[in-house]
Specification:
15% of the residues lie in helices and 51% in strands. It has one helix spanning 32-50, and strands at residues 10-16, 22-24, 28-29, 55-64, 68-69, 73-83, 87-100, 112-129.
């Protein structure tokens, strides 16, 4: 049996995290923010792989590995790892690729930097269903 040619398909989104989404001290953003972005990137992946937006069925193995802060730029990636008859398994990763550096001293309030390497903030596996 040959592997489905859609396996390995990858979609990437980038999003600036606005300060209006910070809920906690230190301008921290809740973990649900990353999960919502996973839903967005999953929708595009389903459109590209199956011509349909699909429906999210479940998450498994969600791991919050590092904090997401207001002022971050997140790169969110979904990779199609398994194709069933109607279900698709997707692997997700949210990485902080840029981060604000404001905090006093000689830096302006708008100071920021590109992170190399990026910080892996959130990972998960998800199941979507397409008609």
């Amino acid at each position: 049996m040959t592997e489905d040619p859609r396996v390995g398909l990858r979609v990437t989104h980038r999003r600036y995290v606005p300060y209006s989404h910070a809920h906690y001290a230190g301008n921290l953003v809740d973990g649900a923010y990353s999960l919502a972005l996973f839903g967005d990137v999953a929708t595009e992946l389903c459109i590209r792989s199956d011509g349909d937006e699909g429906l999210f069925a479940s998450y498994s193995d969600v791991q919050f590995r590092a904090p997401v802060q207001a002022g971050d730029v997140l790169e969110v990636v979904a990779t199609l790892s398994r194709v069933g008859r109607r279900s698709r398994t997707l692997d997700f990763e949210a990485r902080v690729v840029c981060r604000g550096r404001a905090g006093g001293g000689a830096l302006p309030a708008s100071a920021a930097e590109v992170l190399d390497p990026p910080i892996v903030a959130t990972t998960a596996t998800g199941i979507v269903v397409v008609p």
